[in-house]
């Protein structure tokens, strides 16, 4: 009997444990922190051995294979020891993929991947396909492989999940963009992070497709210097393409397999240039899976967007409150500020992953009337924007940040939570940060 050790008792860990037990593995789950009650119940119910607040090395080093949660870096001493011993350390995505024959649409990128994943799933579901959504969102891929019988999956894949793959493959891979992010996990080397993202295409064959942003210099440079077997399917806002998706006179035009798709950008339910790109990518994935054009158009018109991504929360005294808590890096916040058409009180800050805020200066100069800091260390924000914005206030939580913003905003303004940082100093995660912000707005 093969022994699988799962490091991390969260969503991906518990899902993997369930699938492994079903497939006849001896399973042990180990988490150095406390395991959340909802996951503990599942482990007990499935009679899966686990430990918490500790890693017992001799229970772990004897594994045949180890699944580590995406949040655990490769540099952790225990992981280093496992690799030195020659034990395979893989991600949930890798483990689960060997037990399903489903067609996979895999989506990665620094920004836009959640929206593109949800939008692709929405189109395929509307087309009546038997399709699941997993990866970085919803119930774990492994648990769905164990309990459901989907014929297709749309998976949102982070670089950390891709770091742990060996034979996993997406029939259709989407790469939305690459900008510096998570550099703290990649020795502050951008190229390490880039290579991580491109692992999505490493097992693709000439039967598979790589949909990518042809306006992204980083992606283009990698494709010039490296080879993928996949058929390249580009999208662009800057140039006309013979094959792929582009914009002409405010229309999205897509040429795939001699079949032209045409739709005005004004009909899209989600706004902003970045969402035109997300829509192009999702549309081409759906077309490659033979979804009818009419179904795609209807889906793009009635899609509701992702929670915590430029989400309109409320309008109070003629001031719009917008929750963009999912903006955990500078590029995501760039998109948010670009979409603002009013004077904005901007709530920013958290755990800085090596951010360079200079790219935001022109937008901040033009649109931001006040900055409200939401983090424990705000020096970099104050140093970058101190000369550009007259009012910079530091706050210690979502409730205080919202109250201060309410005082600073006047009729016709917007209050935008778009932190450009991770949330782990004051919140559990970006969802918790977004929910606390929304609650504070509703309590005004």
Automatic annotation (TrEMBL):
It is found in: Cytoplasm. It is an enzyme of class 6 (ligase). Pathway: Cell wall biogenesis; peptidoglycan biosynthesis. Residues 107-286 form the Mur ligase central domain. Its EC number is 6.3.2.9. InterPro entries: Mur-like_cat_sf, Mur_ligase_C, Mur_ligase_C_dom_sf, Mur_ligase_cen, MurD. Residues 308-421 form the Mur ligase C-terminal domain. Its main location: cytoplasm. It catalyses: UDP-N-acetyl-alpha-D-muramoyl-L-alanine + D-glutamate + ATP = UDP-N-acetyl-alpha-D-muramoyl-L-alanyl-D-glutamate + ADP + phosphate + H(+). ATP binds at residues 109-115. GO terms for cellular component: cytoplasm. GO terms for biological process: cell division; cell wall organization; peptidoglycan biosynthetic process; regulation of cell shape. Keywords: ATP-binding, Cell cycle, Cell division, Cell shape, Cell wall biogenesis/degradation, Cytoplasm, Ligase, Nucleotide-binding, Peptidoglycan synthesis. Coiled coil: none annotated. GO terms for molecular function: ATP binding; UDP-N-acetylmuramoylalanine-D-glutamate ligase activity. Cell wall formation. Catalyzes the addition of glutamate to the nucleotide precursor UDP-N-acetylmuramoyl-L-alanine (UMA). HAMAP family: MurD. Belongs to the MurCDEF family. This is UDP-N-acetylmuramoylalanine--D-glutamate ligase. It comes from Polaribacter aestuariivivens.
């Amino acid at each position: 009997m093969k022994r699988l050790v799962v490091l991390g008792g969260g969503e991906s860990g518990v899902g993997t444990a369930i699938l492994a037990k079903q497939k006849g593995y001896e399973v042990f789950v180990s988490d150095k922190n406390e395991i959340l009650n909802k996951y503990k119940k599942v482990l007990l119910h499935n009679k899966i051995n686990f430990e918490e607040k500790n890693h017992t090395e001799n229970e772990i080093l004897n594994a045949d294979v180890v699944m580590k949660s995406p949040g655990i870096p490769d540099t952790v001493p225990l992981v280093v020891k496992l690799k030195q011993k020659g034990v395979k350390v893989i991600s949930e995505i890798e483990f689960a993929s060997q037990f399903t024959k489903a067609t996979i649409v895999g989506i990665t990128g620094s920004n836009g991947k959640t929206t593109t994943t949800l939008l692709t799933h929405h189109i395929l579901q509307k087309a009546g396909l038997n399709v699941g959504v997993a990866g970085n969102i919803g119930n774990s891929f492994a648990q769905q492989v164990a309990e459901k019988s989907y014929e297709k999956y749309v998976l949102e894949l982070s670089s950390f999940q891709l770091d742990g793959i060996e034979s996993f493959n997406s029939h259709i891979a989407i790469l939305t963009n690459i900008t510096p992010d998570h550099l703290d996990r990649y020795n502050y080397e951008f190229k390490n992070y880039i290579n991580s993202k491109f692992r999505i295409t490493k097992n693709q064959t000439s039967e598979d497709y790589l949909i990518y942003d042809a306006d992204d210099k980083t992606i283009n440079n990698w494709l010039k210097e490296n080879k993928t077997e996949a058929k390249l399917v580009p999208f662009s806002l800057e140039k006309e393409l013979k094959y792929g998706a582009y914009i002409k006179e405010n229309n999205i035009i897509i040429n795939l397999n001699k079949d032209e798709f045409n739709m005005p950008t004004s009909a899209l339910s989600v706004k902003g240039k970045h969402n035109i790109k997300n829509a192009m990518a999702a549309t081409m994935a759906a077309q490659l899976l033979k979804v009818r054009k009419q179904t795609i158009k209807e889906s793009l018109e009635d899609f509701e967007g992702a929670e915590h991504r430029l989400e309109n929360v409320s309008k109070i005294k003629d001031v719009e409150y917008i929750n963009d808590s999912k903006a955990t890096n500078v590029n995501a916040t760039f998109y948010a500020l670009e979409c603002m058409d009013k004077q904005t009180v901007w709530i920013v800050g958290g755990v800085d992953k090596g951010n360079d805020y200079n790219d935001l200066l022109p937008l901040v100069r033009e649109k931001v009337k006040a900055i409200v800091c939401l983090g424990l260390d705000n020096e970099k924000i104050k140093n970058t924007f101190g000369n550009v914005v007259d009012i910079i206030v530091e706050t210690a939580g979502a409730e205080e940040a919202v109250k201060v913003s309410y005082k600073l905003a006047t009729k016709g303004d917007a209050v935008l939570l778009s932190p450009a940082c991770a949330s782990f100093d004051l919140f559990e995660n970006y969802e918790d940060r977004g929910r606390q912000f929304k609650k504070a707005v509703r309590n005004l």
